[in-house]
Amino acid sequence: MRRVIKNSFYRKLQLSFIAFLILPIFLISLFNYSIYKNIILDKIKLNNESVLNVLSNDINKLFNDVFYVTQLLVTDTDVINGLTELQRSSAINSFEDFKSFGDLVGVLTTSDMKAFNVNVDMFIINNEGFIFPSMRNLKSVSHLREDWLQFNGSINEEPSEYFQWVGQVNSENEHSSRSIYFSKVIDDPRTGQQLGFLNTAIAEDYFSNLFEQITVGSVVIVDEEDNVIYGLNEHSSIENGAFIKNEALLSPVDWKLIYYTSERQLIEELRKTFYQSLSIIALFIILFIAISIALANKMHSPLKQLQHVTQTYGEGNRSIRYDVKGNDEINRLGKMMNTTFDQVELLITRIEQEKEKIKELEISALFSQIRPHFLMNTLNSVRCNLILVEDVYHSNKIYSLMLLLRKYLNANKPSTLKNECELLEHYVDIMSMRNGIEFNLEFLIPKHLQSMYIPFLTLQPIVENAIIHGFSYGEKGTISICVHEREDLIIIEVTDDGRGLKAEQCRKVNRRIDNNSIDGDEEHQPIGLANVSQRLHLIYGQRANIKVESEEGYGTTVEIIIPFVN
């Protein structure tokens, strides 16, 4: 028996409650309360249930009416056609818009006035934020828009046959009370396209007027997660207080209508018995508090340590472990948790290693797409022959090509902005000869940024695109590389004064870069840009970005955004 008590945490709790709380309170209170309590509780509960049935029937009828009318509206042909005609409108711009607006508001107002009382307001809003209010609305369009801005983030835009409860809105209008909003997505049944939202507001005045007949106790409406929709803000404290609770289900929305009644009436009936047993109960309570505090502190210490270890591990300290000092349930749980943490740590290490290997393989694969494969020895021989025949021009071009290839062969080594610019000078020298274009290459790079590390061949594919797509044979052009800082980011702008792109071509290029899409059959395919974008995302994550801006006849600018790495 002693071993069981020593090793069982839950057994300690059970014996403590039996010895110091349950047994004395049960024996003393059983005789006094068993005679009166059940009779009074049953009487109060029966009365409360009758009241709740009346209230819940009224509220359920309102909800059913709301759901029925709104279901008719979202499938009504006039509503669908009106919203389809005005789905791209944010204001009334023509007489046809005005007529469609009037027809839509008329249908909404007619349904609102026939089906509901003055405490229910309805309005429709399209995808552009244009509001179609019921003419019976007590709120102005500006106040409806303020309400919409408060609850539209809670709307699930997936199609649903039911209305969604999207929250409560505190109106800033002194003449309007707080409202409970429901919303439903309006879809075109022919195309499935979302046209807008039908929103229904039930003013809290409706519930206030309905619950005025309650003279004893309090009524609260809560949702399925026990959050208060209407009623006392002290609902959670009431839940733990001395109250009798009756519940009725508001089935259309899965809410509960709860009626709280104070136990004051019951206490008045039991007062005489209570005074007789008060002295005995007080003695046991004092004794229990003194002993239970000491025991609880001792027994709760392992739980606190377990909670601290779990919380600290969750905050990122993966080296922390639970200090096992026994063999009860808590210590066995701590031992199992330590084993789990060790396994998780091993798994994380393996995953990180695998990710690093995958990243290296992907980067190597991307490099292989643009790494040239020339024979250095052959080029050197050609250069020597050109020097012998005093062909200085072509020997210099061969020399530039050799320097360029040497840098390509060192692709796995870290590169800097300065190295990338030197590579560009050799590359542009060669391209000038190939394309018959005289280029002026400009660099505007602060000195303290020249040594910043960037991925190898970040700028060359962009300059290559500028030369191929921006200039024609025999032209002259300028390509500038400008680098500056913006907070903790580095902005690299590659600008040319070539022929530029049309607006639609520029949008396609940006879209393909964002989607890493390469279509080899179309002009202006961003193969080099997409390649650079992939490598930057692999190295820097989502903070890296490439954006192309161009105007036909005025050149193109490619903006590269990467985190600062010194």
Give the topology, please:
Elements: H1 2-7, H2 9-75, H3 77-85, H4 95-115, E1 120-126, E2 131-133, H5 141-151, E3 164-169, E4 179-187, E5 194-203, H6 204-210, E6 218-222, E7 228-230, H7 235-239, E8 243-250, E9 255-262, H8 264-314, H9 329-370, H10 376-388, H11 392-409, E10 415-416, H12 417-435, E11 438-444, E12 453-454, H13 460-470, E13 476-486, E14 489-496, H14 503-515, H15 527-540, E15 545-550, E16 556-563
Parallel strand pairs: 11-13
Antiparallel strand pairs: 1-2, 1-5, 3-4, 4-5, 6-7, 6-9, 8-9, 10-12, 13-14, 14-16, 15-16
Report on this structure.
The radius of gyration is 38 Å and the shape is flat. With 566 residues, it is of the alpha+beta class. Strands 2-1-5-4-3 form a five-stranded antiparallel sheet. It is built from 15 helices and 16 strands.
Count of separate DSSP helical elements: 15
What is the share of helical residues?
A: 40-55%
Instruction: Specify the CATH homologous superfamily of the domain at 414-563.
Output: Histidine kinase-like ATPase, C-terminal domain
**What's the architecture of the domain at 414-563, going by CATH?**
2-Layer Sandwich
- Integer-rounded radius of gyration: 38 Å
What's the main sheet like? Answer: 5 strands, antiparallel
SS-based structural class? Answer: alpha+beta
Principal-axes shape call: flat
Strand order of the largest sheet: 2-1-5-4-3
- CATH class categorisation of the domain at 414-563: Alpha Beta
Low-confidence stretches: 369-374, 520-524
- The pLDDT mean sits at 77
**Quaternary form:** single chain
| CATH T-level topology of the domain at 414-563 | Heat Shock Protein 90
DSSP, total strands: 16
Q: N- to C-terminal separation?
A: 68 Å
Strand content: 15-25%
